[in-house]
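Researcher: Quick test of sequence recovery. C-alpha cells follow.
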C-alpha cells in the first residue's frame, strides 16, 4: 500500500475534514466555537533520583480547539503542535504532535458520515520505560498518528431494517531505537504503518414487527496491510441472530454463523551471523525471497447467546457467552446515563486484533464531544478520554485507549479485557475516572527468524482521574492522576510501574492567558533504577 508523504499532514487528514465540517456548519448551530492559539512556555524538570540532573527548556506551540453541535452534526477537534528547545547540550530538542478529532454528520435521513484522527506520543515496548511526562531524553516513546473515516447507511425495505457501513483506517508510528531493556532482552520488530478496510452489512426485522421474535442476518469483511514484514490480516464472517423479548425490560438473544481469519507475514532479512537486519529506525528489513508464512489461522462455526437488559432508556446491559477463536469467549457492555451531566460506560471485550485495527476502533468508540484535559507534561489523548456531556446519547461517557497502547505490537494478537469510564460535567466542574485491565496473547509464524512472541502473553492495568474546575469567569484549575502496571512473558521482561500527578492553574486577561503547572512522576522498571522526577512550567497563551 502507498505511504503518506509526510507524517503530520497525512495523519491529520481527518482533522482537516473536521475543520471543514466546523466551517460549513450553519449559523443556527446549537453550539459552535473556534479558538486557535499560540503559546510560549518556560519549564524546568529535576530528576529526584539524581539531584544533579536538571533539564530546562523553552517551548513554542500552536493549536486549535473547536467544536460544533447541531441537529445533524457533532464534531470536535483539539490539536496542538509543540516544539521544545532544550538549554542543555546533552538533551535533544523535541517536536510533539498531540490531537484528537471526532466528527459525525447526517448527510441524509439514510446516510451518515463518521470520522476521527489521533496524534500522540506513546510507549513502544511493553518491557521498556514508562514515562508519563515528555521532558528530556524520554526513552521508549514514539510519535503515533492514526485516522479513520467512512459512511453508514440505515434504511427500511418493507418490514426489514437494512444497515451497512464502510471504514477506512490508516496508522503510522515513528521510529524509535532509544529503548533501555534488561540484559538479555531480545530486539523486537518496530511498527511502521498500516492501512485497513472493513465493510459490514445486515438485514433484519425487530421483534413484534411481524413476529414475536426478531431476526437479523449479517456479515462483514475486513483486511489490513502493514508495511513491516509484509504483514496481512484478512477476516470475514456471516451469521444469523434471533432476539426474544421475555418481559418489558429483558430479552434473550442467540446467534450462530461461520468465520474465517488469517494473518500472514514474511521473514526478516538476516546477516551472515544469522541475526535479523534492521534499518535506521530499528525495524526488521523484509526478506524479499521469504515465503508468506501463517501467523494465525482459524475458520469454522461460531455461536453465542446472551441477555439484554434495558430497564429504562438511560440504562442498557448486554452480556454474551459463546464459542469463537477456537474456544470459549465472553463479552459484555454497560451503558448508563446517570443524569444529564454524567454517564458510565463499561465494556468487556474479546477479539483477534492488530495494533492498527484496534486503534481505529478505539478512536471510533470515543465521543464526538470530549473534555479537553489541560496537561502540559503528559501524553495527551493516549489514555482515557472523558465525554464532554458524559451521559448524552451523542457524546457518551467516553473511553480509554490504554489497552491499545499497552505496547505497539507488530504481531497479531488476541485481546481480552475490561475497560470503564465514568464522566461528569456539571456547571463549572468536570471530572472523570477511567481504568481497566488488558491481556494479549501474541501470534507469529513458528519458523520465522527473530520470533520471540509466539504464544506469549502481555498484560496491563491502568487507572486515571481527571478534574477541572472553573474558579471564576477568567480562572481555572485542572488536575490529572495516572497509574499503570505492565507485565510480559517476553524474555528478559520485568514488571513496570508508572505513576504521575500534576496540576495547572490558568487565568485569562482578555485574549492573553497565563498558566502555572507542576507535576511529579515516577516509574519503576524492574532491576533498573527507579526514576522519579518533578516538573514546573510557566506559560503564556494568546487566543485569536
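Model:
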Amino acid at each position: 500500500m502507498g505511504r503518506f508523504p509526510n507524517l503530520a499532514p497525512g495523519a491529520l487528514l481527518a482533522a482537516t475534514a473536521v475543520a471543514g465540517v466546523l466551517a460549513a456548519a450553519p449559523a443556527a448551530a446549537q453550539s459552535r466555537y473556534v479558538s486557535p492559539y499560540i503559546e510560549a512556555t518556560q519549564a524546568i524538570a529535576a530528576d529526584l533520583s539524581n539531584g544533579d540532573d536538571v533539564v530546562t527548556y523553552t517551548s513554542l506551540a500552536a493549536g486549535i480547539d473547536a467544536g460544533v453541535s447541531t441537529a445533524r452534526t457533532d464534531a470536535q477537534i483539539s490539536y496542538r503542535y509543540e516544539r521544545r528547545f532544550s538549554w542543555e547540550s546533552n538533551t535533544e530538542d523535541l517536536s510533539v504532535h498531540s490531537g484528537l478529532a471526532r466528527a459525525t454528520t447526517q448527510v441524509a435521513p439514510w446516510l451518515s458520515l463518521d470520522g476521527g484522527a489521533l496524534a500522540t506520543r506513546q510507549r513502544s515496548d511493553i518491557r521498556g520505560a514508562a514515562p508519563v511526562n515528555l521532558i528530556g531524553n524520554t526513552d521508549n516513546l514514539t510519535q503515533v498518528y492514526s485516522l479513520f473515516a467512512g459512511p453508514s447507511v440505515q434504511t427500511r425495505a418493507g418490514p426489514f431494517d437494512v444497515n451497512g457501513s464502510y471504514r477506512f483506517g490508516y496508522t503510522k508510528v515513528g521510529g524509535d531505537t532509544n529503548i533501555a531493556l534488561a540484559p538479555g532482552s531480545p530486539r523486537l520488530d518496530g511498527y511502521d504503518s498500516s492501512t485497513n478496510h472493513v465493510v459490514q452489512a445486515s438485514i433484519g426485522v425487530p421483534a413484534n414487527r411481524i413476529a414475536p421474535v426478531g431476526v437479523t442476518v449479517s456479515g462483514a469483511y475486513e483486511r489490513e496491510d502493514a508495511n513491516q514484514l509484509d504483514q496481512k490480516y484478512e477476516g470475514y464472517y456471516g451469521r444469523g441472530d434471533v432476539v426474544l423479548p421475555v418481559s418489558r425490560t429483558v430479552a434473550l438473544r442467540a446467534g450462530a454463523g461461520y468465520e474465517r481469519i488469517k494473518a500472514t507475514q514474511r521473514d526478516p532479512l538476516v546477516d551472515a551471523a544469522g541475526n535479523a537486519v534492521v534499518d535506521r529506525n530499528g525495524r526488521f528489513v523484509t526478506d524479499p525471497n521469504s515465503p508468506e508464512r501463517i501467523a494465525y489461522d482459524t475458520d469454522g462455526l461460531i455461536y453465542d447467546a446472551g441477555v439484554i437488559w434495558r430497564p429504562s432508556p438511560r440504562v442498557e446491559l448486554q452480556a454474551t457467552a459463546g464459542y469463537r477463536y477456537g474456544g470459549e469467549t465472553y463479552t459484555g457492555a454497560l451503558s448508563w446515563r446517570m443524569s444529564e451531566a454524567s454517564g458510565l460506560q463499561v465494556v468487556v471485550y474479546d477479539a483477534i486484533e492488530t495494533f492498527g485495527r484496534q486503534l481505529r476502533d478505539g478512536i471510533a468508540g470515543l465521543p464526538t464531544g470530549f473534555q479537553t484535559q489541560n496537561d502540559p507534561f503528559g501524553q495527551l489523548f493516549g489514555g482515557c478520554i472523558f465525554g464532554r456531556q458524559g451521559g448524552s446519547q451523542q457524546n457518551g461517557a467516553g473511553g480509554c485507549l490504554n489497552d491499545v497502547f499497552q505496547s505497539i505490537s507488530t504481531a497479531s494478537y488476541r485481546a481480552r479485557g475490561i475497560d470503564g469510564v465514568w464522566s461528569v460535567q456539571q456547571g463549572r466542574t468536570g471530572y472523570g475516572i477511567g481504568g481497566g485491565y488488558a491481556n494479549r496473547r501474541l501470534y507469529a509464524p513458528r519458523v520465522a527468524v527473530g520470533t520471540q512472541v509466539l504464544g506469549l502473553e502481555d498484560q496491563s492495568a491502568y487507572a486515571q482521574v481527571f478534574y477541572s474546575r472553573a474558579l471564576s469567569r477568567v480562572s481555572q484549575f485542572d488536575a490529572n492522576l495516572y497509574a499503570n502496571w505492565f507485565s510480559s512473558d517476553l524474555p528478559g521482561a520485568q514488571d513496570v510501574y508508572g505513576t504521575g500527578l500534576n496540576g495547572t492553574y490558568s487565568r485569562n486577561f482578555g485574549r492573553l492567558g497565563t498558566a502555572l503547572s507542576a507535576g511529579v512522576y515516577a516509574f519503576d522498571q524492574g532491576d533498573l533504577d527507579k526514576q522519579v522526577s518533578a516538573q514546573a512550567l510557566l506559560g503564556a497563551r494568546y487566543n485569536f
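The two ends are 40 Å apart (CA to CA).
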